[in-house]
Design brief:
Layout: E1 3-9, E2 13-19, E3 35-40, E4 42-48, E5 52-58, E6 61-63, H1 66-71, E7 81-85, E8 93-99, E9 103-109, H2 116-120, E10 127-132, E11 135-140, E12 144-150, E13 153-155, E14 172-174, E15 183-188
Length: 198
């Protein structure tokens, strides 16, 4: 179980809202969010209600103000919704496809990959099926740029609602605040393939 506390002002001041599950719209609880504290678990936060717009991954820790969060890679200045990333044990599996609607070349991923173009000779990756585990997608190599949380399911067009346009590679990251066997795979996005998005 995760827990995150949002505050209207910097440095954990002003009205607060405590959340231990998904919240599709924080506007009924807070007029804005300028700082937050993740007490346990991991969360994705979103710039717009209903888990829309740009996203940012937050692990256990204190986030004193939005300016510092932006220097860590967050691309927006207020949080409007959040989604708790559930604890996952077991393997990570994802099928990636060269074309939309699971068309073209397919590869199944179960381990880290520095660059899917080099490893699998895929020029594009436009759809995927996340079978096991939870994944983070990044716009650029080295965990930079816009990101998107992907949970198990089928994604016929990538990336849905994240504002990113390219996919290249993903390494894994270990989350120190969860059990040692808990991992979230990270899918790196770069300029290897143009993808439609909403």
């Amino acid at each position: 179980m995760g827990k995150i506390v949002f505050y209207e002002e910097k440095n954990f001041q002003g009205r607060s809202y405590e959340c231990m599950s998904d919240c599709s719209d924080m506007s009924s609880y807070l007029s804005r969010c300028q700082s937050c504290r993740v007490e346990s678990g991991c969360f994705m936060v979103y710039e717009r209600p209903n888990y829309m717009g740009q996203q940012f991954f937050m692990r256990r820790g204190e986030y004193h103000d939005m300016q510092r969060m932006m220097s860590m890679g967050m691309m927006f200045d207020s949080i409007r919704s959040c989604r708790m990333i559930p604890h996952h044990r077991g393997q990570f599996r994802m099928k990636i496809y060269e074309r939309e609607n699971f068309g073209g070349q397919m590869n199944e991923m179960m381990d880290d990959c520095d660059n899917i173009m080099d490893r699998y000779r895929m020029n594009e990756c436009q759809s995927c099926h996340v079978m096991d585990g939870h994944w983070l997608m990044y716009e650029q190599p080295q965990f930079r740029g816009k990101m998107m949380y992907m949970r198990p399911g089928e994604y016929i067009i990538l990336p849905l609602n994240c504002g990113c346009s390219y996919i290249s590679q993903w390494p894994s990251i270990t989350l120190q605040d969860w059990q040692s066997d808990m991992r979230v795979r990270s899918w790196m996005l770069s300029q290897s393939s143009i993808i439609s998005f909403i």
